[in-house]
Write a structure and sequence with these properties.
Shape: globular
Number of helices: 3
Largest sheet: 7 strands, antiparallel
Order of helices and strands: EEEHEEEEEEEHEEEEEEEEEEEEEEEEH
Number of strands: 26
Strand order of the largest sheet: 1-22-19-24-17-14-13
Structural class: mainly beta
Radius of gyration: 19 Å
Length: 294
Amino acid sequence: MDKGTQTPRALQGVFPPGPDHWVGDGFYVKTVFWPQLDAQMLSPFLLLDHGARKHFDPSAVRRGVGEHPHRGFETVTFAYEGEVEHRDSAGGGGRIGPGDVQWMTAASGIVHEEKHSQAFSERGGDFEMVQLWVNLPADKKMSEPRYQPLLDREFPRLQLGAAEARLVAGNLDGETGPARTHTPITTLDLRFHEDGTSELELPAGWTTLVFPLEGNVTAGPNRAPIAARHFGVFDRDDDGAVQLHASKGARVLVLAGEPLNEPVVAYGPFVMNTREEISQAFRDYQSGKMGRLL
């Protein structure tokens, strides 16, 4: 079928986020999706928290989340406003600011902290972040941890109809995002510079999730609405293009990835394939095998 006449990919469903809550004392978020919602529908993605734009007054104390462990997955932090600093027991660390992304692979186990940067804490200001959890396949869960600081200037810019896209990971329209991933993933965010349509050619068979951070979006052949801070799931078996319609100023995060088709057991800061592996993760953390922050 000719691309210009192909029916847009069907939208399978739209889901609301959970209630607002604090993560530590520095991140006021809605959990948009989580593994217990439907781990196989979301795979390879696990969880997404959105801290919408919030003003923080100047503070002598850095807000955030103190030392805590992870195993079995990756955390991906998108900075839209404000600055966050990360450090971990594997020696990774750095500061990301507006437009930057931090991709941390916990894998076999890591202890880390995430806090507002010293400079941001002292001056205060608006703060907006997204944190995504990406699952690792069973054969990579006990691999070496890794930290990737990805700067805004490194992301290819694509003009996709009425929107400009920043490509963080994967391949699209002949460009490749800088993030290194363990399984096939394409991640990008869109900003609509005018009212109109943006169309993305993404692989059939993959999970495709769309999350409007700001502005209302419609999608699919019936232009089903996806309200801000809700998320839409597209039909995996449909090979049509992902078509999004939005007004000027809308911002949309698009997540696409090959499903892992493996059991998911998530408990607290650990995501493994069996309950015994979760129990072992707690024992390893408590015995210091995941390291400590100095």
